[in-house]
Amino acid sequence: MKIVIVGTGYVGLVTGACLAEVGTEVICIDVDQKKIDNLKKGILPIFEPGLDAIVVSNYAKGRLSFSTSFADSIKGAEVVFVAVGTPPGEDGSADLKYVLQVADTVGTYIQDYTIVVTKSTVPVGTAQKVKASIAAALAKRNANIAFDVASNPEFLKEGAAVDDFLRPDRIVIGVESEKAKETLARLYAPFVLNDHPIYFMDIPSAEMTKYAANAMLATKISFMNDIANLCELVGADVNAVRKGIGSDPRIGNRFIYPGIGYGGSCFPKDVKALFHTADDYKYNMRILKAVDEVNDDQKHVLFKKITKYFNGDLNGKTFAMWGLSFKPNTDDMREAPSLILIDALLAAGAKVLAYDPVAMDEAKHYADERVIFTNDAFDATKGADALLLVTEWAEFRIPNWEKIKQVMPGRVIFDGRNVYKANDITKAGFDYYGIGLQPKLAI
After folding, report:
1. In CATH, which of 3.40.50.2300, 2.60.120.20, 3.10.50.40, 3.40.50.720 is domain 2-201?
2. In Å, what is the CA distance from 126 to each residue of 82, 95, 236, 305?
3. Which residues make beta-bridge pairs with 414?
4. What's CA 230's distance to the chain center, in Å?
5. Residue 352 burial (CB < 10 Å; 0-12/13-18/19+)?
């Protein structure tokens, strides 16, 4: 089976590489010639654990190829995946111009029956717009070529995307015809050999499933952050509360870790897009709007703690920041809480020394140029008045506190992810501030 994937970003590249890994012939297309040239050399535009190995391997074996030409690539393809960006507009709605450009291109060049699958996260009703765009392009050619549209949303976690694709907990596919259903079932057969389910449904339901899933996960995060903030006020320990509620199977223990807000390319964008869709239908998504509001506020929580500790005067202070990406095991800086914190610190006259194991090159495109990027975590603490744990990378979990004390004059740790145990930090001679916890002051 030959597959064409349009877009070599996060979703497109992971999809293409993983489909090639099980023997499918895949051509990934992008308009960016430099990106395509780099991919042929094994240089990836994103960091994702394990992805580089299967890209290089399948390219070498000829199962995965890269091109800028849709016209040349489409010949003989049974399925075209649309995996281009859907950036948020100023009003929060998803911008579909790139998706519809691909649809127009499909209608311009297909020669035989083709299934066009939206892999990008798109609002309900997008498939019908894609269908209309393809039909309009075919009409311009006076071509009578059959095609189907389908929706196959991705449920990939950044940092674990390859494993998620190769061993999915479920596959959701929206279709309109038995032919499309049979073809896509055949394509995904290698991924469901261990009885992972494929849920076939109508297209609007598939489109909604993606948004509903991300919205639910975002809701759990914001709910727990709200609880954490209340815990601090009433004297409760959010870590104990989290364990107490997480043991209930109806709630579960995933996505209930308090912190400094969610970021990335999915949750912020998808939550806003979903309640914008609801607004179009004159329906008010009250819970989701609160989820979004809580998350925006939560990104300022650590700065408020820092300001209070230093009695409102951060001018001339130096802060070591560990972690920049919105989560570990990715270099994704989109909507990263670190950026909000950096801007607030700099605006208050502070100096920021930052380190991230992977995301520093990417961070330079987002962060203020006054940020000083260091060679390692230890270097970031030299001369610092405080250490801020922002992203919970594994290498930050067991620092050498005695070594840090020798170079860091400040004696306070602000833990934005509740990675450390307060008693351990105070025993090491530091004050400790977490999220949803009572402050622990060194004696």
Report:
1. 3.40.50.720
2. 12, 11, 46, 44
3. 388, 433
4. 28
5. buried
Cβ atoms of residues 82 and 99 within 8 Å: yes
- Edge-to-edge, what's the strand order for the sheet holding 318-322? 372-373, 351-355, 318-322, 386-389, 412-415, 431-433
Pairing of strands 79-82, 2-6: parallel
2-201 and 299-433, same CATH topology = yes
Structure tokens at 154: 């991705």
- Residues 9-35: b if buried by 16+ CB within 10 A, e if exposed: bbbbbbbbbbbbbeebbbbbbbeeeeb
- Bridge-based pairing state of the strands 198-201 and 318-322: unpaired
**CATH architecture of the domain formed by 211-297:** Orthogonal Bundle (1.10)
Q: Is 29 helix (H, G, I), strand (E, B) or coil?
A: strand
Which two three-digit tokens encode residue 429? 């001679």
Its sign, for the CA torsion 294, 217, 413, 438, is: positive
**Does residue 420 carry a pLDDT above 80?**
yes
Query: How do beta strands 318-322 and 351-355 pair?
Result: parallel
With bands split at pLDDT 50, 70 and 90, how would you rate the model's confidence at 129?
very high
Q: Are 84 and 120 in contact (CB under 8 A)?
A: yes
Mean model confidence pLDDT for the chain: 95
The predicted model gives 192-209 an average pLDDT of 92
DSSP for 314-369, please give it: -TT-EEEEE--SSSTT----TT-HHHHHHHHHHHTT-EEEEE-TTTHHHHTTTS-T
∠ CA 134-137-138, rounded to 5°: 85
d(CA 271, CA 51): 27
> DSSP states of 265-305 as a string?
SSHHHHHHHHHHHHHHTT---HHHHHHHHHHHHHTTHHHHH
Q: pTM of this prediction?
A: 0.91
Query: How big is the chain by its Cα radius of gyration, in Å?
Result: 24
Spatial distance between the Cα atoms of 37 and 3, rounded to a whole number of angstroms: 20
* CA–CA separation, 299 and 303 (whole Å): 8
Pair type for strands 64-67 and 25-29: parallel
- Of the pLDDT bands very low, low, confident and very high (cuts 50, 70, 90), residue 90 is low
**CATH number for the domain running over 299-433:** 3.40.50.720
The alpha carbon of 80 is separated from its chain's Cα centroid by a whole number of angstroms, namely 23
Catalytic residue set: 266
